[in-house]
User: Fold these one by one.
Assistant:
Number 1:
Amino acid sequence: MAESTSPSDAPVTVESPESAPKLTRRQATAGLGAAAAILVGGWFVAGKAGLDTMGRGGMNQNLLPKVGDEAPDFTTVSLRGEIVSLSDFRGLQPVWINFWGAWCAPCRAEMPDIQVAWETLEPAGLMLLAVSLRDKPSEAAAFATKVGATFPILVDPDQSLTGEHYPIYNFPTHIFVDEQGIVREIVLSPMTSEQAIATAQSVLA
Amino acid sequence: MAQATVDTRGSRRSPLEMVVDRIWRFFCSVRAAVVEIIILAVLVLLGTLRGSDAPQWLADAIPATQPAVDWLYDWDVFHSLPLMLILGVLCVAIVVCTLNRVPGIWKTIVDPTIRTNRSFLENAELSAAYQSAAAPAAAVGELSESLQKHRYRVLHEERGADIHLYADKNRYAKLGTFPFHLALILILLGGIVGARYGFREMTFVVPEGSVREVGHGTGLSVELIQFIDSWREEGIPSEYRSDLVIWKNGEKVKEGTITVNNPISYDNVTFYQSSYGQAAAFRITDTDGNLLFDDSIPLGQYTAVNNPDAPAGLQQLPQIGSQLNVIGQDQDPQNAPELDDLQLENGQMFLQLRQTADDGSVEILTGVVDPGETIQLGSVNIEYLREKRFTLMQVASNPGIPIFFAASFLLVAGLAVTFYFPHRRIRGIIGPGSDQTGSRVLMAPLARWDWSGQRDFRRIIERIETESRIAVTINERPREHAASRSESAADASE
Amino acid sequence: MESLVKLSFYCFAAGSIAVAASWVSYVLFTIGRVRLRQAELQTSAGTTVRASKAEFAPGWTSAGRFGSMMAWFGVVMMGLSVIFRTAASHRGPYSNMYEFSLAFVFVLLLIYLLFERFYEVKQLGVIVLTIAGAMCLYIWSLPSYMREVDALNPALQNRPLMTVHVSSAILAYATFAVSFAAAILYLIQVRKNVSWLPSADMLDDIGYRAVTVGFPLLALVLILGSVWAHEAWGAYWSWDPKETAALFTWLVYGVYLHTRTLRGWRGERSAYVLLFGFAAVVFTYYGNYFFGGMHAYGGVN
């Protein structure tokens, strides 16, 4: 298309050879072959880099039991020295498990609300197990007395008794289990007494 | 502009006029604009580096630079006079430049010069010529039709035996540069309006169940119904939420929920979720049973002198000329026993009542109180009801925001129009053919230094060639690259 | 979820190999010509520039073509990787440097290939694929926990706005990378007058066109960032270091756009401004590593 008038024109003519000929069959075959080889090689490389173990981290971690699953059992001790298992209540009562700690300010702040909810829910047939974690039992007991908590308080200072099935990373955590031992609701935030009562009603029904 | 025309026409110019002229030309100059933007960029770079550790690395590598680095860290570039000055100069330059260029550009759009000459076309970097069997007038018609198919506007006028032709497309896109540049000024204006007529409260704290006044003459107060922080099971926060009620002069005007990134507004005052913390609810009465205080005190806004890690709060009790200081439990077990001298148990509060007597003497009474307990300090009974939580919001009213949004739209739209719809121009002369039959067409794009423009022209010519089945000669006169380095485009001419 | 994250990573691994293969091909394509040219000069010393036609040995044209094919294949793989990851995370690629860089490689290759098609030149590929390859190495060097999809803290959860903000940033950076490649070749061309490179005018034009795409996009990035800051913090501009670094970059390209109309600056000096602009882009891109402030997320702290 261009008239070559001077030597410095050369770059213009240089551009044409690339656009001119069509893809040859050999080139196309080589491309497809290389693509296939890369697909296989990618599998190998990704495997070496740990493809098998991927995908379970971050937000895909499974820590707590899921809603609708059977609540895994745990056995621990109450402040009064009784040995309590979650399975003790199966078939008898729905259970509200509250994982808390006297060291945790939001947990302490919601304790009066929990007490109010308990006073309403206990007559309705609900069991509340407040499991104190990472606390000295004496400190948990002292705080419970101060706020006038009348519900059963269980202790597991190093999370060794509940940690296997209930690895708790945020406090407070509320888990509502129905009479059949099925997890119905998990609340990962503090609750007011109204919220707690409303949530528990759904488990009681 | 009026100024400039007077200056150029004036036969005898006073020194003042000459100064004005010089200043005017300084602000019109692209070269000065480049220097101004470079200065602004350097200031912005310095300010950016100041926010990083990079200058310290330099000082660590070359100790001699330490004083300069310290000076940089001390210098608040973004609120400094040089930055304000250069922004001011740029604004003036933009205004002057705009006033200077609008008439010329407007003329190119509505009333461009059609007339050209052969030597200009022949000496263009790229030009095209062909013979047409039709007479000049008919040839112009055909050519116009082809160009119009490519969205060109075609103008022509007769000059003797020749017809001069001017064709362009996207001519209005040339105006895009003005909204863009004016948007820059508007953004600064928005910032000034916001700073002058708005306010921004960084820490607006409301405990659960409490009402706090916004102030700043808004007459608004905010009640926090509850604060809820939701978390994911792996311990990552998923939402911070405050349920609010907004009151105006004692009347409930709005209820709403804010989360991070989802503020609510009333009366141009906007509430943003920012943070949260613990609070403690107290009920304070004097010995006669008069209620002095029944509210929550947020903890963590202050720190105790002895124990900086313990959350603390304070509350004035003006009725009795006192101040109540509250210190909560130190959450860091490593501080005990040296730093954590209070050794509070979970949920306990340390209270300190500073009573200023009429003679100015200060009496300090202290005590530790458990939840649900009442303690008597001097003449008051303090009942510690329970622990609560507070939400920390930012409150802002920024009347500059509408200006900013309008400017943003102008800015992006202006840029997009300028760059994505380049103004393309073609000039041509259609004259009688050499043997007095048909006509000879000579055309050139105004596309010096403009590879894409030239390519567009080539494509149009190719289309004309195939559609009209005529042979077009393309003539190229490449610039010498060596020469292009020193002497360059005549920017004004295009 | 789990399988989508895996699939995304696998596509990235395959894409990386494709990028490597493409890089090798583009290098062979460009280097191969130089050799041929020298051979030609030794045999017929008299004809200097006319001899350039002999440079196009079919083998090396194939190398260029193979490079393009591999780059397209890389685009597909990287694109799938980004899509699978988006499907797994339900948001744009902005939670950490792994995701962000992955999307950047995809967009960089895509933008480059569009420029390659539009201008019908392949020589830019050597530089662009070098950048893409370096980015792949960088992604591989990131700690492996970043390959997992993480939950976002509340401050980053404004999804549509964040996605557009970050996508515009990626697009802008990619176009600036192309203009950087064009500026390097332009400077080589202007100084050495190399016959196997595209004409200086074309390279100048590529650099300019890329900036005209990138400059409005970077403006959009700054504006959307401001809008978002306004919604999250109540202030649309807070002189955060990453904000100001982006503003600095934008100003540098603003200088470039003005110098192009300026006598004595146009050409070589403009090209140097482009090199400097890309340095600013790199500075902004990796700014998280040395800035504090609101952008200090992305798992680099």
Number 2:
Amino acid sequence: MSTVISMVVSATILAAPLIIAALGGLFSERSGVVNIALEGIMQIGAFAAAASLVLMQEANVPGALWISIGIAVICGTIFSTLLGVSAIHLRADQTIAGTAMNVLAGGLTVYLSEIIFGAKSTRSFIFALNRVSIPVLKDIPIIGPIFFNALYPTTYIAFILVVITWYVVFKTPFGLRLRSCGEYPQASASMGINVVKMRWIAVLASGALGGLAGAALVLSTNTYYYAGTVHGLGFVAIATLIFGKWNPWGVLGSGLFFGFCQILGQYSTSIPFLSGVPGEIFKLFPYVVTILAIVFFSKKQVGPKASGQIYDAGKR
Amino acid sequence: MNKKRSVLQISLFAVIAGILLGFVVVAITGRSPFNMFVALVRSMTGFNLTKPSQGINVTYILNWFLNTMPLILTGLSVGFAYRTGLFNIGGEGQYIVGALAASVVALTVKLPAIPHTILCVVAAMAAGALWAVLPGILKAYKNISEVVICIMMNYIAMYFSNWVVRTFLEIDTKTNARTIGFPETAGFGKVFANNPSNFNWGFLVVVVCVLIYWFVIEKTTFGFSLRATGFNKESARFAGMKVERNIVASMAISGAFAGAAGAVVILGIFKYGRIFSAMDNYGFDGISVALVGMANTPGIVLAGFLFGLLKAANTNLQLFNIPMEISELMQATIIFLVAIQYGIILLLDKFDNRKKKGEVVTEGGAAK
């Protein structure tokens, strides 16, 4: 039982960055911009958080932890302007631009590590996020130890962001307009919606969330940033988004599920009936499931229709 | 302005601007751009500008060629799909299963030297093709974007390959992180036995693949029908072409090139089955090569040499105190600039107009 609980807890920790990044992807895809660059944005966020935290801790800056998270969000947002400029204004193929950004982020973060720290990684930060427990709720049987005891705050932040995203995207006029831009932007434009502006807001939100996701990842699972910190989780986040049907609650569910898959790979040897199954099987599981989901969804239109298409106001 | 020329202009502009930006970044971050120039020249020619008396060291040139080999192959892979209207971002996965298939054949089949190596390469190409067929089928018959499926297939390939290597092949007990070495019969030997460079006979695979690419795309009706499908699916269908079959075939051929890259690297450099902890990124590099090379044969070969140089320069850059990630930075800038070619066209047009205005004033008669 205790193994199960510790597994679920580890899964929620790993799920947090996945969910946050997938929500970032949700904003941009709902507005019609495919964000393949999530991986790169997460790298930028993770590097920015780790590097600034190390430097501030060495200088004894108070509140360094939260400032570093803020810096990660800002850097992610700035980095996403590359996607904004190329995809919204310069009619770039969004997949190619995103791929370029991923290569850029991988190179840039390690390059800067070399310049600032003289190594292929940042120095280790002294302490990062502390696990928090919620007083009364943690004593509830079963649910308490899993969801309210000794979790990183990032898990709670992810959950709160799910609620906020759901409210903003599905319950406000702004969200309706945003979604319309991802379905049929020319029709939105004819109703007086500024498609370019909506897509910019979405791309920047996506960058901010991607940066936050990177920070959440590095601060809860690592003590420094190196080239392998994000190791493809940005692409798992895209899978999370698709498997979650481009819906915040779906993202929450699939994020927890994929987080659990990643953990199963690590724990499988200590669970009797799974010990025969090689860890690789669990690791490739999210990707297989996503392909199956895409094939299954393909019968009905689930994702945003205009996602990935260049917006040309003159086209009907 | 004729269209072909402007595509070439965009590529050249992107390459020059990307490399210049690399120099600027190096300068801004307090390292010496001159050292970077020295490192690049040394990687290309083997000539050390700071120590001219040492003369030319051929090893560097051979290493440059060695680094170029897989890049041309993955470039052909992405380029082939691109010409037929598909975006094969799954080259990485096809590369990995190619390497896997080559390792399996190398370690489990017993044959004399040359047939064994050839069989390894064929198996790798078949595996790569097979890996690319699924995204092709889904694209052709269900109209599902090949991009996301390919990305997922990359990771499936990596974990699947690791599982197969760990479970079915003989693991080297000393390191526990790779298989035992391949037998002498499987693998590409060095072309120049006396030179420390690993430059090997795998280059013949590259040459053959380049010729196949050129011949199929430019010279056959099959290639024409593939390109027509890429231009406009519906009109190709109307003209009686089997659009679905073409899409699947195109992905398969594309995957075969990436699989060949896997074989060339594992048979020429590693010579043992690998357990991947991270991706080699040759598949992604192929995107840069194909785009900068405008997806045509000479372009891909040249772009392969360009990015091969950036890769080969890594050790020299480190030696001259420049973080080698600068080459990734330059590569990313170059693809990004190619991606935003609409912006570059605007820029070049503006530049051209200004120049033309100047010409009209100075040599008014000659311009007309």
Number 3:
Amino acid sequence: MITFDDVSITYSGATQPVLSHVNLTIPEGELVLVVGRTGSGKSTLLKCVNGLVPHFTGGTLSGRVTVAGRDTRTHPPRELADVVGIVPQDPMSGFVTDVVEDELAYGMESLGLAPDVMRRRVEETLDLLGLAHLRNRALMSLSGGERQRVAIGAVLTTHPSVLVLDEPTSALDPGAAEEVLAALQRLVHDLGVTVLMAEHRLERVVQYADRVIVVGGPGEAIRMGTPDEIMIDAPVAPPVVELGRLAGWDPLPLSVRDARRCAAPLRERLEPFVSDLSVATNMYGDEALSMSDAIVRHGHTVALRGISISAQAGEIVAVMGRNGAGKSTLLGTLVGLHGLNGGSASVGNAAPASLRGRELVTRVGLVPQDPTHLLVADSVRDECSATDLDCGLAAGSTRRTLDRLAPGIKDDTHPRDLSEGQRLALALAIVLAADPPIVLLDEPTRGLDYPAKQQLVAILKSLAQEGRCVLLATHDVELAADVATRVIVLADGEIVADGPAPDVVIGSPMFAPQVSKVLSPQPWLTVAQVARALEPAS
Amino acid sequence: MKPQHRLGAAALPRWTHPVAWWAWALGLVACVSRTTNPLLHALIVSVAGWVVARRRPEAPWANSFALFCRLGIVVIAIRVVVAMILGGGLGDHVLFTLPSIQLPDWVAGITLGGPVTAEALLSALYEGAVIAAILACIGAANSLASPARLLATVPAALYEVGVSIVVALSFAPQLVADVSRVQTARRLRGRPHRGVRALAGSAMPVFEGALERAVDLAAAMDSRGYGRTRPMKPRDQFIARVLVLISLIALSIGVYALVDGVDGSWVSWSFVAIGIICAMVGLRIAGRRSIRTRYRPDPWALPEWLVLLSGWIPAALFIAVAVNDPASLTGQTSPLQWPALPAIPAIAVLMAALPGIVTPLPPGGGPASTGVASELRRQEVLS
Amino acid sequence: MTLQTATTTQSRPAHIGRRTGLALAAASTFGLFAFLWPLIGAADSTAITHASETPWLFAVLLPLVIAVVLADLADGGLDAKGIALIGVLSAVAAALRPFGGGHAGFEPMWIVIILGGRVLGPGAGFGIGAIGMFASALLTGGVGPWLAFQMIAAGWVGLGAGLLPRASGKSELALLTVYGALACLAYGFLLNLWFWPTVTVAGTLPAAISFIPGAGFVTNLGHWLAFCIATSLGFDIPRAALTVALIIAAGRPILNALRRDSRRAAFDVPVTFRAPVPASSVHVQ
């Protein structure tokens, strides 16, 4: 279906090719996963498929890419629109119209399909992706998962035989991700669509993949193989695979189900160490923040209905729950973005809504969901020096913080050109400049690859060790399992669970990490814990 | 009878073709421009308002009628005030006298103030009423015709421009949402987040974000088949381009002749006519390059015809009356006289109320709920 | 495999070729007549003898002319990037217009039209001006006979910005500032012209600021300027002042952002296809 024949890509002005000598053949009807670090050329590979590289981006392509027999040299993206559908990373950025139904029809209008065909296909697609109840809704009013499904639907209506997706689930909560993946599964199985998908959240997708392509980065060869072949030594792997590697299981399990089948001996080996795990003592400092019976309304919707929490210095609290459960509102209330309609909130003995400027940022800092919103300057240098000025610090202080968090960022890079992880680090450095004892992070792992996530985990732990109170809103169960000392689960604006991380997540179908699912009823959460337990034994 | 031909309440709710509403409103504008009789103006505005009240969808743009009426009242007020200050010396019923100032010659020697006559005020009022009534008719069209649907009717040759406008329309509300997001970020950095300075500080990030999304959007549009064209015969392409040039040049010559008065008016009119025809044909041929089709277009059925006629027949009647009995359409100011309501024009205006009965109701909760304002509210809830 | 190297270069958005240039010139001539007829019209011409009808004639014909010229501009080369950029800049312009509410000429949109035209070229500048006006009219329900006049005048402002001579650094900003002030004043004065005859011909306003059909160029020019000063200067000067202030304060970063983005959009970047370079490649599958 797709062939890459000795393809090398060099962008204009670059000295080194992004991809070199790529040879790939992707058969029809397969779900192919593309993995690799940020900046390894994954996106470039995906954009080659419909000719956006080099027709749209400029640059030099040597070799040949063909899709369904069409050569991208002679077929620019618009001439491939009926064969390849591309869903961009941020679905909102690709929407042309503003209503679901019109958006689904837009591609077909461009291709000049007959009105009755369009009508039929729109209805079919609405049903296929479960969007029928949203047909008249404005795109801006949809949730992340709904937007993603509309974006998929919008390219599906032209009946492409290849679907290319760039990180379709990384911004979604587990439930919404399941919906999107189920829809993709259906396309592959029922309609024979070839799906090419880049994704960092391997734990969600690897078990669905027929093949995996590993993009190593400039100068490294691209490998393709079945998931179990590739996962044996892939640089990035989901926890279940790492557990399998640790335990030496063969064949390597890709899903929780496979792993549980061979987990009995491991559970036996681990049994003696379980008692070492329960060391939950209160070693934290004073109360850093609190909320009691807090109510926040947005118009007619109630975002928080009587929330009472408190957190101590040195704690890392993960706030979990589905999209729209009130996580972001909770964090926003703690920095005074939302006024309270009832109850009280306090950060560092002050009501957050009454704080302004310095008073606020020295007490509490929030890294928003999209860290780009915090960044305003033209270069990393300006961003750092502006922050030094804002906070009255010695020149270079913010820059030093940044180097500690993410070394090696060039001074004159434009903040918008940084990778997701670097951008998060920069935003965090800015927030930390005022030295707030409370740090809040909203969905920090969005778009991060595994190494960047590891780095984030280390940073969060060191923040807690410095005696800060860290509160993060996240859907990432693996991150929560890794760093959180306490987990709060919100649903519909109310707290439904609040307690030490193992107590809350173990046994929860939604929030349990993979390791816990494999090894339950034993309370293991992370591969690192298991590895530590096994170390003396081996 | 096909469902889309059914009239009024018997029809299923659907959008009446936006072009029909505009044609109707322009017919009313033509009526207004033929008369200075304030009673007729009041009647026309009431009829337009009645139709708006009956067929207005639930959308932010549907408030235009009220906005335009308010604007019309402002226009009348300004005209009256200007007439008082600048005077005009019409008539002899002096109501009161303002202190007067003689401006120097270099500003054309205007006298400010002086005696204010009832005739001058009344004629300012009547003339203001013409503009206010025109504004009200246009406001009615703005209230009744969905801009998005109006846009979907652009001819094929203007497709690219149409897409650009669609992009602009769906993007503008996102921008407003972006501004509030950036203001949030400013608060998080401990900078002022309200007031003019904060707004200025928010503008650049929003602008950069917008530009960045423009490139992403272009990539998405390209991948989705935007700009696919049917290969045109070189001859057709040549003809289309030549016709376009001829039309523009003919129109320019035509209006030059109109303005310069070189000859009898028929020469200029024929140039204008040639220009219009060439433009239409040229646009039509140029439109052949587009292969684009339209999803669920608004039908043009019996109600649309009736809407069109109920605007244009009154316009024709007004023009006929203006020729035969101009006095009945004139609001008399000197000598002062209470205006009378002439029968034929009044009946003609009442005809224009027909769309309030025959058109189908607009769908409720449909695309009407996608307006800018309601979106912003939703966005606030979500973020 | 015998593939040859093929290179194409993508052009700037709405590039104006000779044909489009001619069409724009003809349309602009028409537009000038549409505005200037009260001043230049001969006493015995149809336009002047039917002075109260003429504005309506132009209000009908001008949209057609604008449609034709925009279609021609699009035919000349508006790819997805051009459309998206013009659309987004029009959105910015449109969003900035209701923002100022048009009160006392507080219309920050002009900076977008002027700087957009400067960076993206005259064709795109015309597009941003004309389409931005149209989009903002749709957004605020401001469609009416005035719209075509606003569109073509705003298009000229963007077009002119694209035609300004080369300059960089401080001199570029100075150039744009002067242009911005003049363009905003000219826009206001021109826009008065289209309705001036209709509102003043009846004779209720003082003769000194009224249109006198057939009174000749000099007289009417004087009356028109007096009319502008008496009625709209209060809007025109704040509009020009705001634009100048914005260009001085934010011109540099906005120009940089536009240039950065037009690099990102790779408008002038060559696209090359080359035959594969023989090398030891790893073949998978």
Number 4:
Amino acid sequence: MKPAFFVKEAFRSISRNAIPSFAAMASVLVTVLVLGVFIPVVQATTGAANEVRGRVLVDVYLKKDATRTDVSRVQALLGRTDHVGKVQYVSKAQAYATEKKRNPEAYELLGTNPLPDTFRVTPDKPDNVAALRNALTTQAAGGGRIPIDGAIDQVKNRKDETNKILTATRVVKLAMGGLAVLLIIASILLISNTIRLSLFSRRREVEVMKLVGATDSFIRWPFVIEGVVLGALGGVLAVLLLGIGKVAFLDPLASDFALIAAPQTIGFALLAIVLLVASVGVSAVGSSLSLRKFLRV
Amino acid sequence: MAIVERHKAELERKAGPEDRAPSVIEFRGVTKSYGPTNGGLDTASFSIQRGEFVFLVGSTGSGKSTLMRLLIKEIEPTAGTIRVAGRDLSEITRKKVPYYRRNIGIVFQDFKLLPDRTVYDNVAYALQVTGQGRKEIRAKVPDILRLTGLATKLHSYPDQLSGGEQQRVAVARAFVNHPPLLLADEPTGNLDPETSVGIMQLLYRINRTGTTVLVATHDQTMVDRMRRRVLELHQGRLVRDEDNAGYDARTDLNTAEFGALLREPSPEPRRRARTEREQDSGDFDDIFPDGE
């Protein structure tokens, strides 16, 4: 009897307060729509930025006369050093082969292999690239830097390139993060304000219910169900619109634009579920929290 | 009338041993102050017996509403104890307040109906709140609406009703749970005199079924005519407590007699007009003493 009664009450109240109900549903719809577009965009952008950052690395060139034991010693040393993420060993022969493929004539003329054994060291985090370089070299008295191992000729981190990549991607990520935070705050304010408005117009009703002897939960349940229904309605409509948009506009373009097809973006099904749960949850919690103020009679 | 019998039976059934305590309301040194200079009620002590019909009078700000709000535990007294049906209100926890309020019918000056519900649903809500089934609701609500003279307005919304009708709905809602105590805060404050008489008759009828009724009002003529017990508040102090408002009065009037009591003596101006006309006609005779 009771749950059915609460559901009936909720629907009665939705139909009797059509305009505030519509406003609440519309605000959920708009918010979910914007979030639904924005979440994949943020993910694609940060994904792209991270991919670029992944290219930041430190080259450790060994001396030309480095022996095989030198190589394995340096490799072990790199394994012990801080901030080392991934180590890739490129031997003289491998380097020669790749370079020769790129520029066969020049290497033909050269005759010998001028390239050293190299370790390509990726830092654990792109931002730690400078620290990594410092770990592999020590400050010399004359101002230059001395490698920590005798077999190492040079430690290079392609300075200009690295700095550009780091600043550019940092700006992109910060901007996206800031926008996301603003958008989430705006969504919460929008939805809670709409709920508050529609509840405020009914605070007298709540007061009367309390005076007649209704318990708090008896008053709250229909409001919460109303919030769930309106949130779900707005969420479902928004997801439908997103789906239509995806099929109609995004999928035909996906083959042309790498960003859209970026592998790290959330799957549509998962995105739909997340958005639906969020819209229903926010509406229900919002209604019951906003109601608390009016229940203190 | 079936509903009256049912109400009496209901009251008997509900009355626990402590409910049979003769005092329905007992105030002992109750003080409520809203601030150091802002007193609501000042050491009020009185008790109201079961089945009484009591008026609470006093000008605006005298503490009538404070007293009413204390009784429904909307506010807490600063000092003193309030007992309703033998129960100390301070012992009722916040969670239990709704259950306590179901035993009190409340009628307000501004009706306090739910605007988006029909007359029927407004009355039914008071039953739904207590978890009663659809069957009982269907049995009780039309009965009570007939008693209050609203049988033809079941499906109207409050904004389609006159003030008097809305107040009847409010009385019906207050009464439908068969409360042992009915509080009315200025129930006729927004109504014209004739409609007020109707509402007071309704309250009187409810009182005759055994419900204790406490009416706050500043309608002095109404109080004088009804000749019931009067409590008067002045600036938060209880300054008068008289049985029968100082008159001799029968307590066993039926509702029609009661209505007649409220309407008489007929309004003063009309009576004076008649005597003036009588004098006029006398003068007329004086002017033409001889006839010819």
